[in-house]
Amino acid sequence: MNSDMTIFATTLLLASSLALSSPAHVGRTDVELNPMLRNAAVDHDLAKVKQQFERELHSDAADRSAASSQR
C-alpha cells in the first residue's frame, strides 16, 4: 500500500508539473498550446490515475479481508 501512495503522489507531481509548464518548455501541439485542451488532458490523466489508485485500494482491502478470513 505504501508503494501505491508513492506512485500516486509521483504521478500527481508529474501531472501538475506538465500542467504548469510554460509554453517554451512544452512541445508544439494543439493540445499543449491550448490551455483549455491541456487542462482537459491533465484532468483526464488524473481521473485515470485516480481510478487505478482506487482499484488498487479495493483490491488491497479485498486481499486483506480474504487473508484475515483464512486465519
Provide a descriptive summary of the structure in words.
With 71 residues, the chain is mainly α. The chain has one domain. The protein is built from three helices and no strands. Helix 1 packs antiparallel against helix 3 (35-70). It is elongated. The chain starts with a helix and ends with a helix.
Proportion of residues in β-strands: under 5%
Distance between the termini: 21 Å
What value does the average pLDDT take? Answer: 73
Number of domains: 1
Structural class: mainly alpha
Order of helices and strands: HHH
Largest sheet: number of strands, sense, barrel closure: none
What form results from the Cα inertia axes?
elongated
Into which percent range does the helicity of residues fall?
over 70%
Radius of gyration: 17 Å
Would you summarize the structure shown here?
The chain is mostly helical and 71 residues long. The protein contains 3 helices and no strands.
Q: Which keywords apply here?
A:
71 residues; mainly alpha
Topology summary:
Elements: H1 2-20, H2 30-33, H3 35-70
Helix pairs in contact: 1-3
